[in-house]
Amino acid sequence: MSNIIALAQTDSTNNVLKRMALDGALPGTVVTADCQTAGKGRLGRSFVSPAGKGIYLSYLMRPDTDTELISTITCWAAVAVCNAIESVCDIAPSIKWVNDIQINGMKVCGILTEMANDAVIIGIGINVNDSPEDLPEEIRSTASSIRNEINAPEEISREDLTNALIKELDKIRLCFPSSHNEYLEAYRKLCSTVGLDVSAVSAHNHTSEIPRLGKAIAVNDDFSLKVLFEDGHEEDLKSGEVSVRRR
Known about the structure:
Strand content: 25-35%
Shape: globular
Order of helices and strands: EHEEHHEEEEHHHEEEEE
CATH superfamily of the largest domain: Bira Bifunctional Protein, Domain 2
CATH topology of the largest domain: BirA Bifunctional Protein, domain 2
């Protein structure tokens, strides 16, 4: 059973849990917030977190394994989010590599994993009941909410979805990394990026780098993405930003 700390508001649940981790918080500790004033996304982006709309949750693990395996936890968490959404909302989401959860091709969830000494903080933000007006105008063409995408007549229970998500994360904590093959197989089935034309930029220079164009051809055993670029060479991407190109 996880220890759950529920906050009305905070800057970032990841920040709160990182501080707790450094003070000795136990694996399975969870911090949730009704809203965040400085929610964080990947590559230094912000994650808009309006009150009463979404799930903003961080989960603590202390895996006793090597760094290379720890780097795959984000992908395990993506599978956990998909499982939780499907169990509560009866809709099967997909994963855009590496960790964007989508419904109908629209992003409804992001995951940010951070380290605090030997602790791993899994930060998850899910747009549950947001209307388009709740999201910044510049992302409305690519981001949405679960309720909006499934046309739910009533609000989706954030409590039910939070509970389902924590159960899935507890499962990961107890079986990581021994269930690697199970989660790899699930991730491959859920990943919608394979087979599509993509553009890729590196993580450290994603705002100014000219994207490289290619086709995603496989998810490798370490969850990296194998891409065949237009110049004919293959590369296994372990980080960075991959966007799907629409024809």
